[in-house]
UniProtKB/TrEMBL annotation:
The keyword Acyltransferase applies. Keywords: Acyltransferase, Transferase. This is C45 family autoproteolytic acyltransferase/hydolase. It comes from the Bacteria. Gene3D superfamilies: 1.10.10.2120, Penicillin V Acylase, Chain A (3.60.60.10). Residues 107-250 form the Peptidase C45 hydrolase domain. The keyword Acyltransferase applies. One of its GO terms (molecular function) is acyltransferase activity.
Length: 346
């Protein structure tokens, strides 16, 4: 739980410091030096403060509470932008499915990332917002008290560049903070100047939409037959020609095909059955459930670190630590949105 950024920073100081150290090692492995990280982190914080002043203040408060510098929180929140600035490619991350059904969407996704960063996973609850994220990062996947939820996958586009823009994780959090409809979320996403790409899948009781964020623009992908899915390649016709993820480094196309062909199972009302429908490995034709190859260097290993489902109607998020192949009915942790704090009119 969290209400004050400084308190959150102080209570989670060890985890936030460890997260920064983990990303510093990841950046270094990709040839991004300390001084460059400091400059890019400061730029990410500045962009956040300009586009979302309250979130900029929040990051500075968390930094103060944890004993880190503001630029270090900027680097954590801008980690996608920093990696994009260095044109880093790779396998991940994430496979997302949404099936609209009777006013109660069935959603599920894997969160795939480096196994060395698994200890950074956390859930933070601000008034009105509950988000699965990483220590020190403003937001990622979550649900709000207005009945809107977001899923999150990385993308890579030819337009990605090193002039750091608003961090995509900050965009996800501001959508959770302020949006109650798909249209409001779309408008917010389009108002941000971006330097890196990701897809934010927005879900309400009766709507869903993938917002493909890139510096070249925000593409929109709507459900077909009540089904919406996304892996790690662009689907919007205008943005797809700039796709930078290739089949020689990623299984995204195979995972996308798997999601599309298993829509019936992914629309199961039972949460565990829905998650188990993501249980596909390389030998099944699609590594939706990823396991690290320990023969590879740490910065080239990928793992499904969490499996997550949103209940936007009840304002709840279900998180399983690990990939779909280890999900059981008992393995879910449930988190509820706390009511938003209202301020009396003066």
């Amino acid at each position: 739980m969290a209400d004050d950024p400084r308190t959150l920073g102080a209570e989670c100081a060890g985890e936030i410091r460890a997260a920064f150290d983990g990303y510093a090692r990841l950046f270094a492995a990709h040839g991004i030096g300390f001084e460059q990280v400091r400059a890019l982190g400061a730029a990410a914080l500045a962009e956040t403060s300009e586009w979302a002043p309250s979130l900029g203040e929040e990051l500075l408060g968390v930094a103060e509470g944890s004993g880190l510098a503001g630029w270090q929180l900027g680097a954590l929140n801008g980690r996608t932008e920093i990696l994009a600035a260095a044109a880093v490619s790779g396998e991940g991350e994430c496979s997302t499915s949404v099936v609209l059904a009777d006013g109660s969407p069935r959603t599920v996704q894997t969160w795939d990332w480096h196994d060395t960063l698994r200890d950074g996973m956390t859930v933070v609850s601000w008034p009105g917002v509950c988000t699965f994220t990483e220590a020190g990062v403003a937001g990622k996947i979550g649900v709000n008290s207005a009945g809107l939820g977001v899923h999150f996958n990385v993308l890579r586009h030819a337009s990605d560049h090193a002039d750091i823009g608003v961090p995509v994780h900050v965009v996800a959090r501001r959508i959770l903070d302020e949006a109650s409809t798909v249209e409001e979320a779309t408008e917010l996403a389009r108002s941000a100047r971006l330097s890196a790409s990701s897809v934010i899948t927005v879900v309400t009781a009766d709507r869903a939409r993938c917002l493909e964020l890139s510096p070249a623009g925000v593409g929109v992908v709507d459900p077909v037959g009540g089904v919406l899915w996304h892996a790690n390649h662009f689907l919007d016709a205008a943005l797809a020609p700039g796709e930078r993820t290739t089949v020689d480094v990623s299984t995204t196309l195979a995972r996308g095909s798997w999601l599309r062909s298993h829509a019936a199972e992914l629309g199961a009302a039972d949460l565990t059955a829905r998650a188990r429908a993501l249980c596909a490995h390389t030998e099944d034709g699609a590594a939706v459930c990823a396991h690290p190859d320990m023969s590879l260097p740490a910065h080239e290993r990928w793992e499904s670190l969490a499996t997550i489902s949103l209940d936007v109607v009840a304002g709840r998020m279900h998180v399983h630590t690990g990939g779909p192949c280890s999900v059981t009915p008992e393995s879910w942790a449930e988190f509820a949105v706390r009511p938003a704090v209202s301020t009396p009119a003066r």
